[in-house]
Design goal:
Length: 402
């Protein structure tokens, strides 16, 4: 019998479950302490933290909770995956990884269901001598405080992952890295926030922002006008355009990522691994996630066949038996990036009551809990905490170029 190929975009709200329209609505507050624009993992985790502190919070989401980048992610909680040069961002990633288990315990205590969190480790596979020297150099510089990292030579690596091609020279192995289901994470975070009293208003895009002097006085949607004490822009790749309507120069751009899922009778690899952007993640249910592209393609979030071919060429070169697997589905998402790939976090210039948390690029799943915790603390204190000082949007021009 023939197979049906399901190529779909992950940003379409599923027909059932907590993504469906209206599930989060309870009462209707138009004058909350905090109004968060964007119901991705960054907005939902921040809303949850603020609600835990007793604040009244409304989240306005244009589509369904998690409908954009947050559900399209690969789900790696791996500080070394995706470039992040030494400095405050790398430190934040390390801290984010250390906080994760505790944060998820609290999420579950708030009523969230399982999000598929597993300590899987991650292998950074090297195919040429210069990559191997770079990875080994990093391992020897103690760049990973509080986390284990070791070098596996070709023999050790192939003993662990025999399906890898003959060209492998070795791998950096990060046994403490973890994986989860990113779509479940954002859904459950939104649900836990709602159970804490956050009004999560789906399918309600922000249409207009009104300014009076140094204050943002009104947020308009088609349904309502809100007059919150404070507004946080957490609209992912769309944040820059929203900020621009307030005269702010905080550009964000979408960086497209495409991935696909394969069905396996037997998983070809046991540990999540990557060689550059050739990425394989075995899921506990026997499927294999395969990726990934990093593309400047504007706001086009459709799956492209030539991108899938490019992904498959790279991955099959690394693990030849992948070519025999059956395709389940493919998807694309738009990572929110800034000009220098550092997120903006903190109060925006020239306003007394507007903050931003956007541009977490390739690390938003990993960074969301630590950033939510630190940003909520900052908002409640009215001052950005020291740990986030490097990401102050007023200093965006001074961020290093990676
Ligand atoms: C293929 C891929 C793989 C990835 N893998 C990983 C990984 O392994 N690990 C990791 O840490 N990160 C990964 N990421 C990155 C991660 O997904 C992002 O950094 C993170 O999801 C950003 O979250 P966000 O909430 O800022 O943005 P989004 O999830 O994009 O949320 C922003 C929300 O704002 C809403 N919005 C926009 N405009 C408006 C408006 N006017 N009114 C109301 N709402 C609005 C949007 O609808 C959207 O839901 C990956 C991303 C992709 C695409």
């Amino acid at each position: 019998m023939g197979q049906t190929l399901k190529l779909f975009r992950r940003d379409r709200p599923p027909a059932h479950g907590p993504h469906s329209r209206g599930l989060y609505l309870c009462t209707m507050t138009t004058t909350p302490d905090y109004l968060i624009i964007g119901g991705g993992i960054v907005g939902c985790s921040l809303a949850l933290e603020l609600a835990r502190a007793g604040a009244s919070v409304v989240v306005l989401e244009r589509g369904a909770v998690g409908c954009a980048s947050s559900s399209a992610a690969a789900g790696l909680l791996a500080p070394t995956f995706g470039p992040s040069p030494p400095g405050p961002l790398q430190v934040l990633c390390q801290r984010g990884a250390l906080l994760y288990r505790e944060w998820l315990d609290e999420l579950h205590a708030d009523g969230a269901q399982d999000v598929g969190y597993r300590q899987t480790g991650l292998l950074t596979v090297c195919l040429d001598a210069s990559e191997a020297a770079q990875v080994r150099g990093l391992l020897s510089t103690e760049a990973f405080p509080g986390r284990r990292a070791e070098w596996l030579d070709a023999g050790q690596l192939r003993a662990r992952e025999p399906a890898l091609c003959d060209r492998v020279l070795g791998a950096g192995f990060y046994p403490d890295d973890c994986h989860l289901d990113p779509a479940f994470l954002v859904r459950e975070t939104g649900r836990a926030a709602a159970m804490r009293g956050v009004e999560v208003r789906e399918h309600e895009p922000v249409m207009q922002l009104d300014r009076e002097g140094t204050r943002l006085v009104a947020v308009h949607t088609e349904r309502q006008t809100y007059r919150p004490q404070c507004v946080v822009v957490a609209a992912g790749a769309w944040s820059g355009a929203l900020a621009a309507t307030l005269g702010l120069k905080l550009p964000t751009r979408p960086v497209k990522g495409q991935m696909l899922m394969a069905e396996c009778a037997q998983l070809p690899v046991q540990t999540p691994l990557h060689a550059g952007n050739a990425l394989l993640i075995p899921w506990p249910d026997g499927r294999l996630a395969i990726g990934v592209t990093v593309e400047e393609a504007g706001f086009d979030d459709r799956v492209r066949l030539d991108s899938l071919r490019q992904i498959l060429n790279r991955v099959i070169e690394l693990v030849p038996s992948v070519g025999g697997l059956a395709l389940s589905h493919a998807w694309a998402g738009l990572r929110p990036a800034t000009p220098n790939d550092w997120p903006y976090m903190g109060p925006v210039p020239t306003f007394d009551n507007v903050w931003i948390s956007a541009g977490h690029y390739r690390k938003g799943t990993l960074l969301a809990p630590i950033c939510a915790r630190l940003l909520a603390k900052s908002l409640l204190a009215g001052r950005l905490v020291e740990e986030l000082a490097a990401f102050h949007p007023g200093d965006a021009q001074s961020h290093p170029t990676s």
